[in-house]
Structure formats: structure tokens, C-alpha cells
Amino acid sequence: MQPFLIALQFLTSLPVRLSGMPEPQAAGRSMLYYPLVGLLLGTILWLVSAALGDVALPLQAALLLSIWVALTGALHLDGLADSADAWLGGFGDRERTLAIMKDPRSGPVAVVVLVLLLLLKFVALWTLLAQGDQFALLLAPLLGRSALLGLFLTTPYVRPGGLGQALAEHMPRAQVRVVLMTVFAICLLSGASGWLALLVTGAVGLLARRAMCRRLGGTTGDTAGALLELVECAVLVVLALQA
Q1: Coil, strand or helix: which one is 17?
Q2: Has residue 1 got a pLDDT over 80?
Q3: Are 117 and 233 in contact (CB under 8 A)?
Q4: Rounded CA gap, 223 and 76, in Å?
Q5: Do residues 61 and 38 touch, judged by C-beta distance below 8 A?
Q6: Alpha helices (runs of H) in the chain, residue ranges in sequence order
Q7: Under DSSP, is residue 242 helix (H, G, I), strand (E, B) or coil?
Q8: For labeling, which of 43, 75, 105, 168 is most exposed (least CB within 10 Å)?
Q9: What is the dihedral of CA 152, 173, 171, 117, to 10 degrees?
Q10: Dihedral sign of CA atoms 13, 15, 21, 25 in order
Q11: How confident is the model over 97-149, as pLDDT tens digits?
Q12: What is the sign, positive or negative, of the torsion defined by CA atoms of 165, 166, 170, 173?
């Protein structure tokens, strides 16, 4: 039960209280529950959408997106902002890129990237709601957090002492593979939307991992957060395009 609570506390702003600092092994095992946390977030969004009922679609999309950000504490948006600043300001240099990611300030590039991503999510949600396709509310958070498992499973963690080091070192790899295969099966059994969302997640994950390895030699907590946001956005946009 503790690993699930660790995952819930780390990935959401829900009021979860742990008795103390988790052991590294428990932190590593918490990754097994990342997809489950994604499903929980998606279920909450689905229920909120159902409760909003006859609310005008633009307002409903805005409220859903606001609740989505609030539920996650904007943690991964922060990672995306840091990564965007570092990727441009790093000028291709690994050490400079890592140094900029540690700077808590956000530059104009970070602001522009966040605005564009949130705008895309908003319009995609509006389109999906207009088509009555609330299933995307489950798929996007599920695959966004599942992408983190694939990233940590295949990519070195390059910031010693960083937030993700304990996760990377103590992640139970064999069990993570089982979890990923389960998510894969769920998507395949979900019909065309599930297949398409899975393909989009794989494409975004491969491209992002390639960029990380070329620039940094691996991943950091910030780039992992950026990947999650990019996967969620891509899944919503592509499903909206085919709606």
C-alpha cells in the first residue's frame, strides 16, 4: 500500500500524508503504480465532465483543464518549462543545459511553450467533448504516466542526487515490464482510439528519448515531466483530429 501512496503523493496534489520519508526501495516500487494514478486522475476528470452536464462546451473544457492542472500541482508543467528554457538556452551544450534546468526562473521560451501546450489541450478537450468522446480523458493521463515507466526503463538517469535517482536505481524492472504490457493490452482492447493513442505515445516517447540522449546522455526529472506533458497533449490532439 505504501508504494501506491508514494506514487499518489508524488504525482498528484491530493491530500496524501506519509508517516515519514519513504525508503529508496519503496520509492522505486511506487513506479509500478504510476499508470494506476493516471487512471485515477482520468476517472476524476470523467466524473467531473459527467457532472458538468449541460455546461457550455468551452467552459466545460476550461474547467476540466483547470482541474487537471490543479490535481497534478503543475509538477510536470514545471518540468516542461525548465526543459524548454534549457533546450534553447543550452546551445547544444550538455552542462549548460543541465545548469539551466536547475534555475527556478522561467524565461520567455518556457512561457510560450506552456501557453501553446495548454491552448492545444484546451481546444482538443473542447473538440472531444463536442464529439462525446470522454474516453480520451482516461487514455491521456494513463499513457502519460506509463510513458515515464518506459523512459526510466530504457534511459539512464543523468543527474546524481536528483529527484529521480532513487526511482531509477530501485525500480523493479521485471514488474515494470509486466505493468507496461498490461497497459499495452488495455489500449489494444479499447478499439481504434486505444491503438491510435498507443502509437502516438510510442512516437512521442521515441523522439523525446532520442533528443534527451543526444543532448544529455539520458533523462532527468525535468525531461521526464516534459515527456509526460507532451504525451498527454499529443494523445488529446490526435484523438481530437480523428473525432
Answers
A1: coil
A2: no
A3: yes
A4: 9
A5: no
A6: 2-11, 24-29, 34-52, 57-72, 75-89, 94-102, 108-130, 136-154, 165-170, 173-188, 192-215, 221-241
A7: coil
A8: 105
A9: 30
A10: negative
A11: 999 998 888 889 999 999 999 999 999 999 999 999 999 999 999 999 999 99
A12: negative
Alpha-carbon distance of 9 to 171, in angstroms, equals 17
Rounded to the nearest 10°, the torsion over CA 190, 196, 197, 201 is 140
**pLDDT at residue number 24:** 81
* Phi, psi of 101, deg, nearest 5: -65, -25
Sign of CA dihedral 161, 163, 166, 171: negative
Q: How far apart are CA 27 and CA 173, in angstroms?
A: 13
| Buried b / exposed e along 90-116 (16+ C-beta atoms within 10 A) | beeeeeebbebbeeeeebeebeebbee
Q: CA 236, CA 233: separation in Å to the nearest integer? A: 5
> What cell does 128 get?
472531444
Distance between CA atoms of residues 71 and 74, nearest Å: 8
Q: Coil, strand, or helix at residue 169?
A: helix
pLDDT one-digit tens code per residue, 52-101: 988 999 999 999 999 999 999 999 999 999 999 999 998 889 999 999 99
* All cell numbers assigned to 147: 510513458
